[in-house]
Specification:
By secondary structure, the protein is mainly β. About 0% of the residues lie in helices and about 45% in strands. The protein is built from no helices and 6 strands. The strands form 2 sheets. The chain has a 3-stranded antiparallel sheet, with no helix packed on it. A 3-stranded antiparallel sheet has the order 3-2-5, with no helix packed on it. Strand 2 and strand 3 form a beta hairpin. The chain is elongated. The protein starts with a strand and ends in a 10-residue tail after the last strand.
């Protein structure tokens, strides 16, 4: 059980470092039912505005519980696409014959 969340994003401002007030300090936040489960910086090196990136996050069963997954990114970043892939295990189901 678990899954992956892959999202493509673009910096709307230059990203110079994680301590400057441009896109460089932008983070992503992943929530489940209002509880923060993951967070991190989006940019690891300087890049000019308009550059596109893709990030894949591995999700634990707890992070997809209750069918509540929320992705938030900071103000100088645009999310262009997001894809959630869920993995689940077999269930013992009885079907009438």
């Amino acid at each position: 059980m678990g899954g992956t969340l892959t999202f493509t994003y673009r910096n709307n401002l230059q990203a110079t470092s994680n301590t400057t007030p441009n896109a460089g300090n932008d983070k992503y936040y992943l929530y489940n039912g209002g509880t923060l489960t993951q967070a991190g910086f989006l940019y690891t090196s300087p890049s000019p505005p308009g550059q596109t990136f893709t990030k894949t996050l591995t999700l634990s069963p707890a992070e997809i519980a209750n069918n509540r997954v929320t992705l938030v990114v900071q103000d100088d970043t645009a999310v262009l696409q997001a894809e959630l892939e869920l993995r689940y295990c077999c269930c013992e189901c009885e079907f009438p014959i």
